[in-house]
Amino acid sequence: MVVIIDYYTKQEKVIINDRDELLKIYNKFKHDIWIGYNSRQYDVNIMKALILDMNPKEVNDKLILENKKGFEINRNFNNIEFYNYDTLLLNTSLKQLEGFMGENIKESSVPFNINRKLTESEIEETIRYCRHDVQQTIKVFEATKSDFDAHVGMIKEFKLPMGSFNKTKAQLSTEVLGAKRLHSLNDEMEYEFVKCIKLNKYKYIQDWFNDNRAYKVENDKGKLVKNQLKTNVMGLESVYGFGGMHSAIKKYQSDGFIVHSDVASFYPNVMINHGLLSRAVEEPEKYSNVLKQRLIYKRNNDERQAPYKIILNATFGICKDKYNKMYDPKRANEITINCQLLLTDLLEKIEMKFGEDVLLIQGNTDGIIVKLRDKTLFEEYKKVCNEWECRTGFTLEHDLIKRIVQKDVNNYIFEFENGKLERKGAYVKKLSKTNYDLPIVNKAIVEYFVNDIPVDKTINECEDLIEFQKISKIGSTYKYAMYGDKILNEKVLRTFATTKDLPGVFKVKDVVNKDGETTESIQKIADTPEKCFIYNGSVVGKKCPSYLDRQYYIDMAKERIKKFIGEYKEK
After folding, report:
1. Helix H segments across 399-452?
2. Contact of 470 with 495, CB cutoff 8 Å
3. Residue 204 — very low, low, confident or very high, per pLDDT cuts 50/70/90?
4. Which one, of 538, 537, 522, 528, lies nearest residue 487 by Cα?
5. What are phi and psi of 213, to 5 degrees?
6. Mean pLDDT of 321-327
7. How many CB atoms lie within 10 A of CB 61?
8. Is the full-model pTM beyond 0.70?
9. CB atoms within 10 A of CB 416
10. What domains appear along the chain, each with residue ranges and CATH number?
11. In sequence order, what are the residues at sequence separation of 6 or more whose Cβ sits closer than 8 angstroms to the Cβ of residue 58?
């Protein structure tokens, strides 16, 4: 069965056991772009198998059971013209996204492993199920279309062949930069330091990296183990390692004169100005030109900046991807190590100048947040920063924060002087159509911290059921979910707290003990209420029932607020 929908005309085609009809559709649209969800590894190869008149079940088994790639099954797959765009969002199933969007997430009751031909009613149900998923893929595509536009932009802007459309953005970045794979890479830990770093008080941090204390080799396995250094910088515990510097005051809330100093394009500029671009790129000026052009487009608010931004952001990450041509772990280490030492250099100079008149609130990958005693020190602060900029070749961008609430380095809300909010972390992040989990709790916390609105007010005044949804996915290591003692067919559930005397939801998997005996492990599904009702139909436009347990969400919001500031105070 193949379900195809034309995005523009909305015409649908369902093909069942009719290869000739499929070939007719394929030949009509083979120069167009075929969009799917998680389609790159599976659907595309099944489609190509059908085009080549191969047995799709045999190809399915090689893909799923033997974990083979398409080209490993049949080299002719690479010769078939088929432009696929995969709307896949990292670690998220289509059913989860359908749940976040409030759509129907009921599973088909037709098992995938029936050892007989399907009945007419089973075929009809499967058609409904498949049509629904394709329709939902369109909604996911529309919700994330900016990613698609950037993908198309890369191909247009850099005049890449249409065959490049099947590649990931990381692979396209490699193609634009003309990278050629390096061989015999055995110098991962032979990293070097940029010459402009001038540390005194905190020189011991550079020494920790320099004298090989940052890693060790397990001789029995030959495995490289990377360490972390926990130390005190400006009175704040800071962590150094191969993932970057992280420091933050925990459970902190403040206003006052707070400065967020961010290094502009830190990683791209360290690669360009200090020669730390992957050595697989034979012409580094290509990367420099990408940065220059992006800045021109950005100044002019030109949407063509998007593909350039992708290349700039992807280049560091793919240095650590051994499957990418730009793989260069030595350079990846040099980038992270030097950038955190450069930021430490800046902090050292600020501490030397201001002493106790400055408080370090947070240090992260590409910037710092400090609180000055008062605004009269700001001009002098900028002078210290300027001296660092002149010596290192980087540019700092300073933004004033009106209010900050911080659980830790990965969970915070900043309210800038211009009213803009920056939100990070599962509890307070900005929600989207494709990431809409426990939204009422998120909104209640943000309203409490930003607008001083009591949690009870936000939650009690909301009447839209979708705002209270908890979407849970049962991972592949679990056999099934249970509602009380009832086994469920669904692997994705939408639950709501209730005042009724109803059970909770659980997940079940087999566990083998040391004696080789298998027992079932039953676990409560995380962040779900003790008593809940399941509603896997569409909740778009539905109002809250009287038996919704609003107090459950109020209590959850208050508990999460305590994790930010230690206590909940009524506003």
Report:
1. 439-451
2. yes
3. very high
4. 522
5. -75, -10
6. 92
7. 12
8. yes
9. 16
10. 2-95+108-139 (no CATH), 203-424 (3.90.1600.10), 439-565 (no CATH)
11. none
SS (H, E, C) 152-179: HHHHHHCCCCHHHHHCCHHHHHHHHCCC
Closest CA relative to residue 276, chosen from 338, 318, 321: 338
- With CA atoms as reference, report the closest residue to 468 among 533, 407, 562, 525: 533
Q: The tokens of 457 are what? A: 């007010």
Q: Which residues pair with 360 in a beta bridge?
A: 370
Assign 139 to helix, strand or coil: helix
Segment 293-316, tens digit of pLDDT: 999 999 999 988 999 999 998 999
Reported as a single tens digit per residue, the pLDDT across 117-170 is 999 999 999 999 999 999 999 999 999 998 899 889 899 999 998 888 888 888
Q: Contact, 126 vs 17, CB < 8 A?
A: no
Short-list 33, 291, 280, CA closest to 175:
280
**How are beta strands 215-218 and 236-240 bridged, if at all?**
unpaired
Among candidates 418, 423, 385, 426, which has minimal Cα distance to 404?
423
Contact between 154 and 314 under an 8 Å Cβ cutoff? The reply is no
Mutual orientation of helices 305-318 and 266-273 as an angle, nearest 10°? 70
Task: Give the chain's end-to-end CA distance (angstroms, integer).
Answer: 58
CA-to-CA distance for 214 and 212, rounded, in angstroms?
A: 5
